[in-house]
Amino acid sequence: MPDPAPLALPAMGPPLKRSVTIDGHRTSVSLEDAFWRDLREIAKRRATSPAGLIAAIDHARPPDVGLATAVRLFVLAEVKAGTTLAATPSGA
To answer: For the Ribbon-helix-helix domain, which residue ranges apply (predicted)?
Structure first.
């Protein structure tokens, strides 16, 4: 069986840590830049700030799921649903 073709991976970098305030408490979230970009776009479409969206995700997540994981899974679900520019081929 021939070797599979190598994967064409997107540009990658280490997670970027950003501080947010949730219910008056400062916390930090580490996400890869692609997730930060889509999170900003989703927040813009929902007429909120990224921090406000992160707070909403925090309030909705199960207690045994970490905040960064919840944010990533939320962004993934939104992208798969086609709610971000990144999810549409034309960018429109």
So the answer is: 16-78
Cα(75)–Cα(32) distance, integer angstroms: 12
Q: pTM score, two decimals?
A: 0.82
Q: Yes or no: say if 15 and 29 are a contact pair by the CB < 8 Å rule.
A: no
What is the separation of C-alpha 65 from the centre of its chain, rounded to a whole number of angstroms?
Answer: 15
What whole-number percentage of the chain has pLDDT above 70?
A: 88
> In the chain, what are the domain boundaries?
16-87
Q: What is the pLDDT of residues 19-61, one digit of tens each?
A: 999 999 999 999 999 999 999 999 999 999 999 999 999 999 9
Which tokens in the block code for residue 49? 């700030």
C-alpha 69/C-alpha 31 separation (Å) is 9
Q: Phi/psi zone of residue 80: left (φ > 0), alpha (ψ -120 to 50 degrees), beta?
A: alpha
Q: 89 Cβ partners below 8 Å, 6+ apart?
A: none
